[in-house]
Amino acid sequence: MGDELRADQFRTEAASPRGFRQVYVREGVGGVPLLLVHGWPETKRIWWRNIAPLAAAGFEVIAPDLRGFGDSDVGPDGFHDVPSHARDLYALVRGHLGHERVVAVGGDLGGPVIQDLSLRFPGFVERMVLFNSPLPYDRERMAGLRTRPPREASDYFVPQGTDADALAAELATPEMRRRYIATFYTSRFWAHPGAFAPEEVDFMTEPFGDGAKLRASFGAYESTFSEAARSEPTAMACPNPTPTLVLFGPSDHVIYPDFDRMAAAVFPEHTGPFRLRDCGHFVQWEAAHALNSAVTAWCGDLLAGRRRQ
């Protein structure tokens, strides 16, 4: 476990295609481009159990820190909403790295980001793998489904979205910030009970000791309440024609109870949904082998095609 929890386990690169320094891991260069997009409160570290196995399977794995997270800079324009993240990733992967198409994987905030990316830049996202994330709402298609997350698990949402400055001021020290973030991995029951050992929680929360970045990370929540926090309208829509593999960690107490069925309604070209036993919100860490093997199998034709080239 010691090696797994090293921040320098993978070599990082940096680029500034959108006017700020964005840091990312890239392994398996020359393979099928695979973009791993973290959520909140996460950084690229949440993918530490996925990068090496997926690179070994034949993918060129690209795992960035979104603007305002981890080792990346805060957005210079002050926006940290879904469209900003989507445009950043397109500039990084298409503009800087030169990939015309990509398979995108995301959960939590990363889910809306890759959905936006797939519709904002048609044809760029060849396939998606989606788990435990927000979805566009369709009243007719989702009639009768449990579409509201448990209220007791959602109390964080309003202060982060409507009074972010006050909340950031309350979290006045690195230790206070990390303790706040730690609750999302433990007592708030996003993850399956016991999924994160104390040293793993420490590893995931360390980047959130930075006050400016924690404040910036609230931007996605602010954008759901305030038009002033939106750089532009999101491109998320239902239905989304992108072929999508849907996974679901049902121990999650913050996402929609019927996420899997809702996602099936949103993505007509879906595979699954597949429910993952004893897994909650952080699928890429809690069910790493299941995610890695599912992505590899689902993209087997792409991997075989790349090997023949």
Automatic annotation (TrEMBL):
One of its GO terms (molecular function) is hydrolase activity. Keywords: Hydrolase. It comes from the Bacteria. Signal peptide: none annotated. Residues 33-287 form the AB hydrolase-1 domain. It holds the Pfam family Abhydrolase_1. InterPro entries: AB_hydrolase_1, AB_hydrolase_fold, Epox_hydrolase-like. PANTHER family: EPOXIDE HYDROLASE (PTHR43329). This is Alpha/beta hydrolase. The lineage of its organism: Bacteria, Bacillati, Chloroflexota, Tepidiformia, Tepidiformales.
